[in-house]
Amino acid sequence: MRKAIGLAVALALVPATQVSAQQGDMSAGKAKVEEVCAACHGANGVSVSDTIPNLAAQRQAYIESQLRAFRDGARKAPAPTSPIATMAAIANQLSPAEIVSVAAYFASLPGPATGAKSAQLPNIARTNLKFPDDYKSTFTKYHTINFPATKQVRYYLANKVALDAARAGKPLPNGSYLLVEVFAAKLDASGNPLKGADGFFEADKPLLFTAMAREAGWGKDIPAALRNEDWNYALFSLDKQLRPMNHAECLGCHVPLNNVSYTFTLKQLSGAK
Q1: What is the pTM of this model?
Q2: What CATH class has 125-270?
Q3: Cα separation, 100 vs 86, whole angstroms
Q4: Is 240 in contact with 273 (CB distance < 8 Å)?
């Protein structure tokens, strides 16, 4: 017992970097963090937004346990677009050794200053998408989804390239463009969304557009663990200007959809009339 206590005291006096180095490859952990994790959690463990947790100085055992929980499905995503689903997609690409090394590296970093935030990675922050000004005459509406949590209804539209490929049962090729019109739903006196005869929320105020499109080479600078072939993503304001967003969250969310052209609505697109 005395030896055990002595060991615990000794370890407590050893710098965190030395303890972590015995439990993981610090250089490998740093490289993996800079390649993938930094897109959301920052290369120094300080996240890029208030909605993403900082990992600098977090306990190594805790980070390891969470990564394994994401990978093994112990932490289940409440929805396909949940951040948990994104983390599961990333954790599934990490080997057991990489999980240990990533956790060790984050644990070795100093805790962040209050309010500190990291800048997004340049290759993740940019997008090649331009707003399709002629979409009302050239795109086809193929799907509608209610979003009760945000009291929104969204209309999904696709250009001819995507529509023709989907109808033919082929993967969506370069040149495909999918656009979503996002509306606030009309509300009743109690603040609940009103539904039409078709079961969908009645659209009220237009809010923004989301989009995904692909062209040759658009994915070349995106880390392999996040890459969706050549797909890029974007948010547009009502005046058709790009809005800031963390593209890593879109990329990570769509990573598991490689067998359906990285889209959540390929089935509906295939059956569009």
Answers
A1: 0.82
A2: alpha beta
A3: 19
A4: no
